[in-house]
Amino acid sequence: MELNQAEDHLRHVEKDVLIPKIMREKARERCSDHVQDFTKCCKDSGFLMVVKCRKENSALKECLTAHYRNPDFYEECKMEYLKEREEFRKTGIHSKNRLQKLPTNI
């Protein structure tokens, strides 16, 4: 099956849960500076974080939302998911488990 045809065969859970999960993870990596700024602000502000960290929170939301709304980013994450799914179907091992099972004494 070609990857172009694979979209027709994406299940609801793949489109609405699994691919968006990859998108969130990748977006957080790409917005890591904003994540760090917001995290630091929250740690430094304690209970006042709601008021004191609005600027950092807005910047983080803006960065993440820009990625979520980008159709090219969605396609990139979808292709990554399809590649992982294809590998799983071949090996029966999830990609995260496959990486953990590599021999360390090479």
Give the tags:
7 helices; elongated; mainly alpha; 106 residues; single chain
Order of SSEs, N→C?
Answer: HHHHHHH
- How many β-strand runs? 0
Q: Find the structural class using helix and strand composition.
A: mainly alpha
Q: Beta fraction of the residues? A: under 5%
Dominant shape:
elongated
- Mean pLDDT across all amino acids: 86
Low-confidence stretches: none
Helix content: over 70%
Our Rg estimate from Cα atoms comes to 18 Å
Structural domain count:
1
The biggest sheet amounts to: none
Separation, N- and C-terminal Cα atoms: 35 Å
Total count of helical runs of at least 4 residues: 7
Question: What layout of secondary structure does this protein have?
Answer:
Elements: H1 3-6, H2 12-30, H3 32-45, H4 49-52, H5 54-68, H6 71-91, H7 95-100
Please explain how this structure is put together:
The chain has 106 residues and is mainly α. The protein has one domain. It is 78% helix and 0% strand. The chain has seven helices and no strands. It has helices spanning 3-6, 12-30, 32-45, 49-52, 54-68, 71-91, 95-100. Helix 2 (12-30) crosses helix 5, helix 2 crosses helix 6 (71-91) and helix 3 (32-45) runs antiparallel to helix 5. The chain is elongated. Keywords: Disulfide bond, Mitochondrion. InterPro entries: Cyt_c_biogenesis_Cmc1-like.
